[in-house]
Amino acid sequence: MIFNSIARFSVRFRWLIIIAWLIAVPLAVKTLPSLSSVAQTSNTAFLPTNAASQKAANLAQPFQGSATAATVEVVAVRGSGPLTQADKNATTRVEQAAGKLKDVSFVHDQGFSADGQAQQLLVGIGNAAYGNDAQKIIDNLRSTFSSAGAPAGLSFHATGSLAESIDSERGGNTARNKTEGYILLLIIVLLLLVYRSVLAPIITLIPAGLSLIIAGPIIAESTKIGVQVSLITQLLLVVLILGAGTDYGLFLVFRVREELRNGLEPKQAVTRALSKVGETITFSAATVIAALLSLLLATFGFYKGLGPALAIGLGIMLLSALTFLPAVLAVFGRRAFWPSKTRITDQRLGFWGKLADRVIERPVVTLVAGVILFGVLIAGMIGYSTTGFTSNGSPAGSDSAKGAAAIAAHFPAANNNPQEPVFRFNSSVWNSASVLQKAQSELAVAPSFAAIAGPFNPQVPTLTPAELVALYQQLGPPANLPSTPPSSLNIPIKLYEAYRATAQFISPDGKTVQFYGILKAGPTGTAAAMNAIPAVRTDVANVAKDIDATNNGLLSVDAFSYDISHAATSDLWRIIPVVLIIIAALLAILLRSLVAPWYLIATVGLSYLATLGFAMLVFVHFGNNPGLNFILPFLLFIFSMALGEDYNILVMSRIREEAGSHKALKAAITKAIGVTGTTVTSAGLILAGTFTVLGIVGGDSQVQQIGFAVAFGILLDTFFVRTLLVPSIAVMLGRWNWWPSKLSRQTEV
């Protein structure tokens, strides 16, 4: 009755509904913020505050200041030969100009490279470190390079996590635009093949397109109440709304065409179709929305933001599918399917009906074959491992990539972001260099570290403990010193520059000290380095105990990656039971059964494990990746369970509808598979196609893994689980499928 009322309303007030949507979309775009303006550019921002890496970041605040949200590394490098005095003067001008920028909280000289060809500056960025403000800040910083009057052969580059994120975001915007374009092209081509009509593909796609346009600003506005948005949220939103939205459109449009062929007039056909399929569409969307909202239970802020943001988008898509789409179908009527025929025809069994007929004749054989196939794929999970991430790295050819390459070439201790042991003391170490010497010596021989840089070797020449103390007593904290020594001081320029560079290791008050380290386990960013973090933290804690430090921590890309990966894995095991219970409850309500939900969830669960095994085979065992990206198992579970149940809902609700008309269960299954087979396969191909496009043009390896793995899982559900396994189990259970509803006691005819 509810969906019949919605259908009648949508048909009766069709013009009002269409006009309302066409006004709402541009109004939202004009009055609400854009999604890209609120996107978080670093995944470390989503970690809980009690994570060890976040505590280490707080411990290192004296080097950045409380108002600093991020840092940027500026490197000046000469292509050949050592830096000249003119080069150093140009770097000084950049340092001074950067310090005057509105959102820069500090600029610290990090010294010269051992070969004398490069100099490094650390620039602190204020709290406006994300969104459009961050892009403007990086652009303003890079503008100081061109205005510094650099001599020929000297180049400046801005790199580090924030600069990398901004360059990646710009590349991501390009990838997102390409993704949208290719997905739209793919969907239109597939819909043309499926419908064999001109207008039906456009009518199916328009609601999804409108929903995508309006969802972005609404999600962006929701960030004001705590919803977080990442760069990958924007990509997944495109895929989810266009893919799932097209699926829901297919559910309704195919049923409208079926009712037209049954002899109903267009408006009656739309009303009856929505009355029958509206429940299916709503429960399909509800399973995905419920699964996404369960992410609110996560501790990792990335998931907490991802779930609500995508749920909002899908909710808008559902509203469009129940109002705008039937209104448009009611306006166009039979013309929507031209030149495809909609006259009264006898329904034929078709390919899928014939296949279902064969399956239900030998259900046990089909089920055993399915279990064997799943087992083979699941075996691919042998050696299962995941890797973490904190940023997507620098796009090839970008300024940040060039800067990272320069640092790697000229500053070995800072190669690809060092490990940074941080120590806090009760009293200043400036007048007691023995503590610093002991700390640096013990770290150098610790089992985890291959090399250590600290206040005694910030650059060439190195400093002795006695020189460090003497220079402090004469000059004060190095962070306050100008780039060139006053003429009144009789200090060698090299010694002055080396002391000034110690500001990166010792805080002005002398109570916080940090070092740079390279791990024996492997380069920064590798799985080996990430997995070594617990041992590294133990070594740092042991050194802290020996030097009487009151607090200690480890700040690095790998430390963040380790904490991210473990937070994500913990959330996965916490949320899986919740999602299963929610989906089971929704299936039980829809099918009025306590039996069917069990095997429907079990088959999709096996499909999930098989897809995970497939991903391991492709990306790890044969693809030589160190592990699956940590986010893949999580997103794959959410999408496999939620989107996979979409097709279960469509097929099983139609089987129940046919069985409710006193058909024998075998006949009901054959009829239901016959009439929904094209819908399910078309929807599966389109949804899998959208994720495949994401994998091809989405950009980095983590997006590729998500795109291809989810696409495979959807195809496995579409062509195997839904059309083979589910019918075979259903026919084996017979009337028990519907227990305890009245249908389970109905006499078959």
Molecular structure report:
- Helix content is 62%, strand content 8%.
- The protein has helices at residues 2-12, 14-31, 52-59, 85-99, 131-146, 161-195, 199-222, 231-261, 266-293, 301-322, 324-332, 350-361, 363-378, 399-410, 433-445, 465-475, 493-501, 527-531, 533-546, 557-591, 596-621, 631-660, 665-697, 701-733, and strands at residues 68-78, 104-112, 118-126, 154-159, 386-387, 420-424, 449-453, 512-514, 516-519, 551-555, 628-629.
- It has four domains: 1-62 and 176-331, Up-down Bundle (Multidrug efflux transporter AcrB transmembrane fold), CATH 1.20.1640; 64-159, Alpha-Beta Plaits; 348-382 and 592-749, Multidrug efflux transporter AcrB transmembrane domain (Multidrug efflux transporter AcrB transmembrane fold); 418-555, no CATH class.
- The strands form four sheets. It has a four-stranded antiparallel sheet. It has a three-stranded antiparallel sheet with strand order 8-6-10, with helices on both faces. A two-stranded parallel ribbon has the order 5-11.
- With 749 residues, it is α+β, with helices and mostly antiparallel strands.
Q: How many domains is the backbone divided into?
A: 4
Task: Provide the residue-averaged pLDDT.
Answer: 83
Let me know the number of strands. 11
Radius of gyration: 31 Å
Q: Largest beta sheet: what is the strand line-up?
A: 2-3-1-4
Large-scale geometry: elongated
CATH domain class of the largest domain: Mainly Alpha
First-to-last CA distance? 28 Å
- As a percent range, the share of helical residues equals 55-70%
The CATH topology of the largest domain is Multidrug efflux transporter AcrB transmembrane fold
CATH superfamily of the largest domain: Multidrug efflux transporter AcrB transmembrane domain
Largest sheet, if any? Answer: 4 strands, antiparallel
Low-confidence stretches: none
